[in-house]
Amino acid sequence: MPIEMWHTPDCPQWTVMQINWEAGSRRIKEQDTWAKEVFPAAHERLRRAAVAIEPGMPAQPFIDALTELVQAQADTTGFVVLHRWVEILEQHFPPELPDPDHTTD
Questions:
Q1: Contact 80, 73 (CB under 8 A)
Q2: Which pairs with CB-CB distance under 8 Å and at least 24 residues apart come from 18-25?
Q3: Amino acid 22: pLDDT
Q4: Are 59 and 53 in contact (CB under 8 A)?
Q5: CA atoms within a 13 Å half-sphere pointing along the CA-CB vector of 71
Q6: Which residues of 76-103 are buried (b: 16+ CB within 10 A; e: fewer)?
Q7: In a 3-state reduction of DSSP, which class is residue 98?
Q8: CB 64 within 8 A of CB 92
Q9: Are 74 and 39 in contact (CB under 8 A)?
Q10: What is the pTM of this model?
Q11: Per-residue model confidence (pLDDT) at position 47
């Protein structure tokens, strides 16, 4: 049920809401600025750590998927969209399709 509230310009509740909105907006901008500054170095550390792991380890699909997802994030200015996540995860963790000839039993 929608509710509509009216405030007078000198309403203390309205003033507090405006202050909170402005503070929230400022925090988001600060976090975004910080993340844009720190992300490249963190991304490079992840890449170096992934390269240092021996190929063929049981965790290799997880490492490859994480590295590719982080690269996809680095390539965009916003969020990695859901269909891109699915493409990456399907590539590294393909579904186990049924074997109609039962050759893998």
A1: yes
A2: none
A3: 95
A4: yes
A5: 10
A6: eeeebeeebeeebeeebeeeeeeeeeee
A7: coil
A8: yes
A9: yes
A10: 0.60
A11: 86
